[in-house]
Amino acid sequence: MTKIEYKIGKDECILRVKGHAGYAEKGKDIVCAGISALCTALYKAVMASNSMIQCMTADGELDIRATDHGGDVRSMYAMAVLGFNEIAAEFPDFVKIEKI
Q1: What is the C-alpha separation between 95 and 87, in angstroms, rounded?
Q2: Is the per-residue pLDDT at 51 higher than 90?
Q3: What average pLDDT does the chain have?
Q4: Residues 21, 10: Cα–Cα separation, whole Å
Q5: Where are the beta strands (DSSP E) in 9-89?
Q6: Closest to 84 in 3D by CA, of 11, 18, 25
Q7: Are residues 17 and 3 in contact, defined by beta-carbon separation less than 8 angstroms?
Q8: H or E stretch including 97?
């Protein structure tokens, strides 16, 4: 199961993703692919915004923290969370999302 935790705060936004969904074998898991696509899009969008960002990755783990002073990063995180919620609604046995 993939566990997604997020915070969309006034000054800081956080996204933590841990675990593999286990929907299908590695390389064919559409749940992991969807989550990975959203994570990559979020990371690249935040990087392009010139916001302060920290990103840590390991096998099956991702932690993205970004500062936000104008609302753009919050909007980016909110869009990603909408996508994660759609995936979690479609595949509830494989994805858990929680606001922290």
Answers
A1: 7
A2: no
A3: 94
A4: 30
A5: 12-18, 53-58, 61-67
A6: 18
A7: yes
A8: strand 95-99
Q: What's the whole-model pTM score? A: 0.93
Helix, strand, coil content of the chain in percent (nearest 5): 40, 30, 30
Sequence-ordered list of residues with C-beta below 8 angstroms from that of 8, at least 6 positions apart, any chain: 74, 77, 78, 81
Instruction: For residue range 58-89, list pLDDT tens digits in order.
Output: 988 999 999 987 779 999 999 999 999 999 99
Sheet holding 2-8, edge to edge: 53-58, 61-67, 12-18, 2-8, 95-99
Share of the chain above pLDDT 70, in %: 100
Nearest-angstrom CA–CA distance, 76 and 91: 23
E strand or H helix at 38, and its extent?
helix 30-48
CA 38/CA 34 separation, integer angstroms: 6
Q: Which residue has the tokens 């922290």?
A: 100
